Amino acid sequence: MNTGETQTAPPAPVCRAADGAMSIRKAGKIYDPEGVHVEALKDCSLEIGAGEFVAIVGPSGCGKSTLLNTIAGFDGLTSGEILLDGEPLATPEKDPSPGPDRVVVFQHGALFPWKTVLENVTYGPVVQGVMSEEEANKRAQEMLSRVGLNDIETSYPGQLSSGMQRRVEIIRALINNPKVLLLDEPFRAMDTVTKSASHQYLLELYDATGKTIFFITHDLEEAIFLADKVLVMTTRPGFIKKTLQVNLPRPRQYSMLASEEFLSLKAQLVEAVHEEAVKAFEAGEREMA
Ligand SMILES: Nc1ncnc2c1ncn2[C@@H]1O[C@H](COP(=O)(O)OP(=O)(O)OP(=O)(O)O)[C@@H](O)[C@H]1O
Protein backbone atom coordinates (compact mmCIF):
# COMPACT_ATOMS: atom_id res chain seq x y z
CA MET A 1 0.00 0.00 0.00
CA ASN A 2 1.30 3.42 -0.89
CA THR A 3 0.83 5.58 2.18
CA GLY A 4 2.29 8.59 0.46
CA GLU A 5 5.16 8.70 2.97
CA THR A 6 8.73 8.78 1.81
CA GLN A 7 10.17 5.29 2.20
CA THR A 8 13.79 5.03 3.23
CA ALA A 9 15.65 2.27 1.42
CA PRO A 10 17.01 -0.33 3.85
CA PRO A 11 20.77 -0.12 4.28
CA ALA A 12 22.71 -2.14 1.75
CA PRO A 13 24.02 -5.36 3.27
CA VAL A 14 27.76 -5.29 3.77
CA CYS A 15 29.45 -8.08 1.89
CA ARG A 16 32.31 -9.74 3.72
CA ALA A 17 35.19 -11.38 1.97
CA ALA A 18 35.31 -15.14 2.45
CA ASP A 19 39.05 -15.09 3.07
CA GLY A 20 41.55 -12.99 5.01
CA ALA A 21 41.02 -14.53 8.47
CA MET A 22 44.05 -14.17 10.74
CA SER A 23 45.09 -15.91 13.94
CA ILE A 24 47.86 -14.28 15.91
CA ARG A 25 49.02 -16.69 18.58
CA LYS A 26 51.38 -15.71 21.39
CA ALA A 27 53.34 -13.53 19.00
CA GLY A 28 56.60 -12.25 20.41
CA LYS A 29 59.16 -9.85 18.96
CA ILE A 30 62.48 -8.87 20.48
CA TYR A 31 64.62 -6.34 18.67
CA ASP A 32 68.25 -6.80 19.48
CA PRO A 33 70.27 -4.32 17.44
CA GLU A 34 73.85 -4.37 18.70
CA GLY A 35 72.88 -6.07 21.95
CA VAL A 36 70.14 -3.55 22.88
CA HIS A 37 67.32 -5.84 23.94
CA VAL A 38 63.88 -4.33 23.18
CA GLU A 39 60.90 -6.58 23.78
CA ALA A 40 58.22 -5.05 21.56
CA LEU A 41 55.61 -7.86 21.62
CA LYS A 42 55.03 -10.57 24.21
CA ASP A 43 52.41 -13.32 24.01
CA CYS A 44 50.27 -11.15 21.76
CA SER A 45 47.19 -13.12 20.70
CA LEU A 46 44.14 -12.11 18.69
CA GLU A 47 41.71 -13.48 16.15
CA ILE A 48 40.50 -11.51 13.13
CA GLY A 49 37.60 -12.91 11.14
CA ALA A 50 37.49 -12.91 7.32
CA GLY A 51 36.28 -9.49 6.22
CA GLU A 52 36.44 -8.02 9.70
CA PHE A 53 37.48 -4.38 10.26
CA VAL A 54 39.77 -4.27 13.27
CA ALA A 55 41.26 -1.11 14.78
CA ILE A 56 44.22 -1.25 17.13
CA VAL A 57 45.04 1.46 19.66
CA GLY A 58 47.59 1.81 22.44
CA PRO A 59 50.28 4.09 23.81
CA SER A 60 53.13 5.23 21.64
CA GLY A 61 55.84 2.59 21.36
CA CYS A 62 53.64 -0.31 22.54
CA GLY A 63 54.28 -2.41 19.43
CA LYS A 64 51.40 -1.62 17.05
CA SER A 65 53.59 -1.03 14.00
CA THR A 66 55.75 -4.01 14.95
CA LEU A 67 52.67 -6.22 14.81
CA LEU A 68 51.62 -4.70 11.47
CA ASN A 69 55.13 -5.17 10.06
CA THR A 70 55.19 -8.84 10.98
CA ILE A 71 51.77 -9.38 9.35
CA ALA A 72 52.95 -7.49 6.26
CA GLY A 73 56.08 -9.63 6.08
CA PHE A 74 58.51 -6.72 6.55
CA ASP A 75 59.90 -8.25 9.74
CA GLY A 76 59.90 -11.64 11.50
CA LEU A 77 58.67 -12.93 14.86
CA THR A 78 60.93 -14.23 17.62
CA SER A 79 58.19 -16.45 19.12
CA GLY A 80 54.60 -17.46 18.43
CA GLU A 81 52.94 -17.53 15.04
CA ILE A 82 50.62 -15.68 12.68
CA LEU A 83 48.30 -17.65 10.41
CA LEU A 84 46.45 -16.30 7.39
CA ASP A 85 43.47 -18.48 6.45
CA GLY A 86 45.07 -21.29 8.44
CA GLU A 87 48.44 -21.05 6.65
CA PRO A 88 51.56 -19.97 8.56
CA LEU A 89 52.44 -16.42 7.62
CA ALA A 90 55.02 -15.63 10.28
CA THR A 91 56.91 -17.93 12.65
CA PRO A 92 60.42 -17.61 14.12
CA GLU A 93 61.64 -20.20 11.59
CA LYS A 94 60.14 -18.48 8.55
CA ASP A 95 61.92 -15.69 6.70
CA PRO A 96 59.64 -12.66 6.54
CA SER A 97 58.10 -12.23 3.11
CA PRO A 98 55.69 -9.57 1.91
CA GLY A 99 53.10 -10.64 -0.64
CA PRO A 100 50.30 -9.20 -2.75
CA ASP A 101 47.75 -10.80 -0.39
CA ARG A 102 48.71 -8.18 2.29
CA VAL A 103 49.04 -4.57 1.27
CA VAL A 104 50.00 -1.63 3.46
CA VAL A 105 49.12 2.06 3.39
CA PHE A 106 51.17 4.30 5.68
CA GLN A 107 50.68 7.78 7.08
CA HIS A 108 53.30 9.18 4.75
CA GLY A 109 52.52 8.78 1.10
CA ALA A 110 54.32 6.24 -1.02
CA LEU A 111 53.06 7.10 -4.51
CA PHE A 112 55.58 7.33 -7.36
CA PRO A 113 55.84 11.11 -7.83
CA TRP A 114 56.87 10.78 -11.49
CA LYS A 115 53.86 8.67 -12.48
CA THR A 116 50.29 9.87 -13.01
CA VAL A 117 47.49 8.71 -10.72
CA LEU A 118 46.35 6.13 -13.29
CA GLU A 119 49.90 4.84 -13.79
CA ASN A 120 50.39 4.58 -10.02
CA VAL A 121 47.20 2.59 -9.53
CA THR A 122 47.71 0.22 -12.46
CA TYR A 123 51.43 -0.36 -11.96
CA GLY A 124 51.13 -3.35 -9.57
CA PRO A 125 48.66 -5.57 -11.44
CA VAL A 126 50.26 -4.79 -14.83
CA VAL A 127 53.84 -5.49 -13.68
CA GLN A 128 52.75 -8.69 -11.93
CA GLY A 129 50.96 -9.76 -15.13
CA VAL A 130 47.66 -10.10 -13.28
CA MET A 131 45.83 -7.71 -15.65
CA SER A 132 46.43 -6.31 -19.11
CA GLU A 133 46.99 -2.56 -19.24
CA GLU A 134 43.52 -2.14 -20.70
CA GLU A 135 41.86 -4.20 -17.95
CA ALA A 136 43.85 -2.42 -15.25
CA ASN A 137 42.92 1.02 -16.65
CA LYS A 138 39.23 0.10 -16.69
CA ARG A 139 39.30 -1.30 -13.16
CA ALA A 140 41.32 1.67 -11.86
CA GLN A 141 38.88 4.14 -13.44
CA GLU A 142 35.91 2.36 -11.83
CA MET A 143 37.58 2.33 -8.42
CA LEU A 144 38.78 5.93 -8.61
CA SER A 145 35.32 7.18 -9.53
CA ARG A 146 33.88 5.30 -6.54
CA VAL A 147 35.90 7.60 -4.27
CA GLY A 148 35.22 10.79 -6.22
CA LEU A 149 38.53 10.82 -8.11
CA ASN A 150 37.39 10.28 -11.70
CA ASP A 151 38.84 13.48 -13.10
CA ILE A 152 42.39 13.29 -11.75
CA GLU A 153 43.71 10.24 -13.58
CA THR A 154 46.31 12.22 -15.49
CA SER A 155 47.38 14.33 -12.50
CA TYR A 156 50.64 13.71 -10.65
CA PRO A 157 50.69 13.00 -6.87
CA GLY A 158 52.32 16.37 -6.17
CA GLN A 159 49.25 18.10 -7.64
CA LEU A 160 46.87 16.38 -5.18
CA SER A 161 45.84 17.21 -1.62
CA SER A 162 46.95 14.80 1.14
CA GLY A 163 43.41 13.41 1.39
CA MET A 164 43.31 12.68 -2.36
CA GLN A 165 46.76 11.09 -2.25
CA ARG A 166 45.68 8.75 0.54
CA ARG A 167 42.54 7.78 -1.41
CA VAL A 168 44.69 6.98 -4.44
CA GLU A 169 46.98 4.86 -2.27
CA ILE A 170 44.07 2.89 -0.85
CA ILE A 171 42.76 2.27 -4.37
CA ARG A 172 46.27 1.28 -5.48
CA ALA A 173 46.33 -1.22 -2.62
CA LEU A 174 42.86 -2.61 -3.29
CA ILE A 175 43.28 -3.05 -7.05
CA ASN A 176 45.66 -5.92 -6.19
CA ASN A 177 42.69 -7.70 -4.61
CA PRO A 178 44.56 -8.44 -1.37
CA LYS A 179 43.19 -10.61 1.40
CA VAL A 180 44.15 -8.07 4.04
CA LEU A 181 44.49 -4.28 3.93
CA LEU A 182 46.92 -2.96 6.56
CA LEU A 183 46.64 0.73 7.41
CA ASP A 184 49.21 2.38 9.70
CA GLU A 185 47.69 5.68 10.87
CA PRO A 186 46.77 6.69 7.32
CA PHE A 187 44.80 9.79 8.35
CA ARG A 188 46.97 10.96 11.26
CA ALA A 189 48.18 14.29 9.95
CA MET A 190 44.89 15.37 8.37
CA ASP A 191 42.66 18.26 9.37
CA THR A 192 39.20 17.38 10.71
CA VAL A 193 37.30 17.95 7.46
CA THR A 194 39.73 15.96 5.30
CA LYS A 195 39.79 13.23 7.91
CA SER A 196 36.01 12.84 8.02
CA ALA A 197 35.83 12.73 4.21
CA SER A 198 38.57 10.09 4.25
CA HIS A 199 36.55 8.03 6.77
CA GLN A 200 33.56 8.16 4.47
CA TYR A 201 35.54 6.98 1.44
CA LEU A 202 37.26 4.21 3.37
CA LEU A 203 33.92 2.99 4.75
CA GLU A 204 32.40 3.02 1.26
CA LEU A 205 35.28 0.92 -0.03
CA TYR A 206 35.03 -1.42 2.94
CA ASP A 207 31.27 -1.83 2.50
CA ALA A 208 31.84 -2.55 -1.22
CA THR A 209 34.76 -4.99 -0.90
CA GLY A 210 34.38 -6.51 2.58
CA LYS A 211 38.15 -6.91 2.84
CA THR A 212 39.78 -7.69 6.17
CA ILE A 213 41.18 -4.41 7.50
CA PHE A 214 43.84 -3.97 10.20
CA PHE A 215 43.88 -0.28 11.10
CA ILE A 216 46.32 1.37 13.52
CA THR A 217 45.31 4.68 15.05
CA HIS A 218 45.74 6.95 18.06
CA ASP A 219 42.32 8.50 17.44
CA LEU A 220 39.83 6.64 19.66
CA GLU A 221 36.71 8.09 17.99
CA GLU A 222 38.06 7.12 14.57
CA ALA A 223 38.68 3.57 15.83
CA ILE A 224 35.11 3.13 17.08
CA PHE A 225 33.51 4.85 14.10
CA LEU A 226 35.27 2.68 11.54
CA ALA A 227 35.80 -0.73 13.12
CA ASP A 228 33.87 -3.85 14.07
CA LYS A 229 36.27 -4.47 16.90
CA VAL A 230 38.73 -2.18 18.71
CA LEU A 231 41.75 -3.79 20.35
CA VAL A 232 43.69 -2.03 23.09
CA MET A 233 47.36 -2.90 23.41
CA THR A 234 49.29 -2.74 26.67
CA THR A 235 52.36 -0.65 27.08
CA ARG A 236 55.52 -2.41 25.80
CA PRO A 237 55.92 -5.35 25.60
CA GLY A 238 52.62 -5.17 23.79
CA PHE A 239 49.79 -7.66 23.95
CA ILE A 240 46.03 -7.28 23.66
CA LYS A 241 44.65 -6.04 26.94
CA LYS A 242 41.04 -5.41 25.96
CA THR A 243 38.74 -6.07 23.01
CA LEU A 244 35.71 -3.86 22.45
CA GLN A 245 33.05 -5.13 20.08
CA VAL A 246 31.40 -2.29 18.15
CA ASN A 247 27.79 -3.13 17.36
CA LEU A 248 26.93 0.07 15.51
CA PRO A 249 25.10 -0.88 12.30
CA ARG A 250 26.61 -0.38 8.83
CA PRO A 251 26.67 1.73 6.81
CA ARG A 252 28.02 3.97 9.53
CA GLN A 253 26.54 7.46 9.84
CA TYR A 254 28.04 10.49 11.56
CA SER A 255 24.89 10.80 13.68
CA MET A 256 26.09 7.62 15.44
CA LEU A 257 28.86 9.63 17.09
CA ALA A 258 26.23 10.97 19.48
CA SER A 259 24.58 7.60 20.17
CA GLU A 260 24.61 6.01 23.63
CA GLU A 261 26.45 2.97 22.28
CA PHE A 262 29.21 5.15 20.79
CA LEU A 263 29.63 7.26 23.93
CA SER A 264 29.72 4.21 26.17
CA LEU A 265 32.37 2.54 23.98
CA LYS A 266 34.39 5.74 23.95
CA ALA A 267 34.33 5.99 27.75
CA GLN A 268 35.55 2.38 28.08
CA LEU A 269 38.26 2.94 25.50
CA VAL A 270 39.49 6.19 27.03
CA GLU A 271 39.83 4.46 30.41
CA ALA A 272 41.69 1.43 29.01
CA VAL A 273 44.10 3.52 26.92
CA HIS A 274 44.66 6.06 29.69
CA GLU A 275 45.74 3.31 32.12
CA GLU A 276 48.31 2.09 29.62
CA ALA A 277 49.49 5.59 28.77
CA VAL A 278 50.15 6.26 32.48
CA LYS A 279 52.13 2.99 32.73
CA ALA A 280 54.13 3.90 29.62
CA PHE A 281 54.85 7.34 31.08
CA GLU A 282 55.95 5.88 34.42
CA ALA A 283 58.14 3.29 32.70
CA GLY A 284 59.76 6.12 30.71
CA GLU A 285 60.39 8.06 33.92
CA ARG A 286 62.02 4.97 35.50
CA GLU A 287 64.24 4.49 32.45
CA MET A 288 65.31 8.15 32.66
CA ALA A 289 66.06 7.93 36.42
N1 LIG B 1 64.04 -1.79 14.23
C1 LIG B 1 63.96 -1.61 15.54
N2 LIG B 1 65.05 -1.80 16.33
C2 LIG B 1 64.99 -1.62 17.66
N3 LIG B 1 63.85 -1.25 18.32
C3 LIG B 1 62.75 -1.05 17.58
C4 LIG B 1 62.74 -1.21 16.15
N4 LIG B 1 61.50 -0.92 15.69
C5 LIG B 1 60.77 -0.60 16.79
N5 LIG B 1 61.50 -0.67 17.90
C6 LIG B 1 61.06 -0.42 19.28
O1 LIG B 1 60.01 -1.34 19.55
C7 LIG B 1 58.99 -0.71 20.33
C8 LIG B 1 57.67 -0.79 19.60
O2 LIG B 1 57.73 0.07 18.46
P1 LIG B 1 56.50 0.26 17.47
O3 LIG B 1 56.94 1.21 16.41
O4 LIG B 1 56.00 -1.06 17.06
O5 LIG B 1 55.42 0.96 18.43
P2 LIG B 1 54.06 1.70 18.04
O6 LIG B 1 53.06 1.25 19.05
O7 LIG B 1 53.73 1.50 16.63
O8 LIG B 1 54.47 3.21 18.32
P3 LIG B 1 53.83 4.58 17.72
O9 LIG B 1 52.40 4.61 18.17
O10 LIG B 1 54.65 5.65 18.37
O11 LIG B 1 53.99 4.53 16.24
C9 LIG B 1 59.46 0.72 20.59
O12 LIG B 1 60.11 0.76 21.83
C10 LIG B 1 60.46 0.96 19.46
O13 LIG B 1 61.44 1.90 19.84
Which CATH top level class of the domain at 22-101 and 178-288 fits?
A: Alpha Beta
- Subunit arrangement of the protein: single chain
Tell me about the largest β-sheet. 6 strands, mixed
Bound molecules: adenosine-5'-triphosphate
Question: What does it look like?
Answer:
The chain is of the alpha/beta class. The protein has a domain at 22-101 and 178-288: P-loop containing nucleotide triphosphate hydrolases (Rossmann fold), CATH 3.40.50.300. It contains seven helices and ten strands. It has helices at 64-72, 117-127, 133-146, 162-174, 192-209, 220-226, 260-288; strands at residues 22-31, 38-48, 53-57, 79-84, 87-90, 102-106, 180-184, 212-216, 229-233, 240-245. Strand 1 (22-31) and strand 2 form a beta hairpin. The protein is globular and about 60 Å long. Adenosine-5'-triphosphate binds at residues 31, 33, 38, 40, 58, 60-66, 236.
Explain the layout of strands and helices:
Blueprint: E1 22-31, E2 38-48, E3 53-57, H1 64-72, E4 79-84, E5 87-90, E6 102-106, H2 117-127, H3 133-146, H4 162-174, E7 180-184, H5 192-209, E8 212-216, H6 220-226, E9 229-233, E10 240-245, H7 260-288
Parallel strand pairs: 3-8, 3-9, 6-7, 7-8
Antiparallel strand pairs: 1-2, 1-4, 4-5, 9-10
Helix pairs in contact: 2-3, 2-4, 4-5, 6-7
This protein binds adenosine-5'-triphosphate (ATP).
Highlighted features:
AAA+_ATPase; transport; 289 residues; disordered N terminus; globular; six-stranded mixed beta sheet; ABC transporter ATP-binding protein; Rossmann fold; alpha/beta; binds adenosine-5'-triphosphate; 21% strand
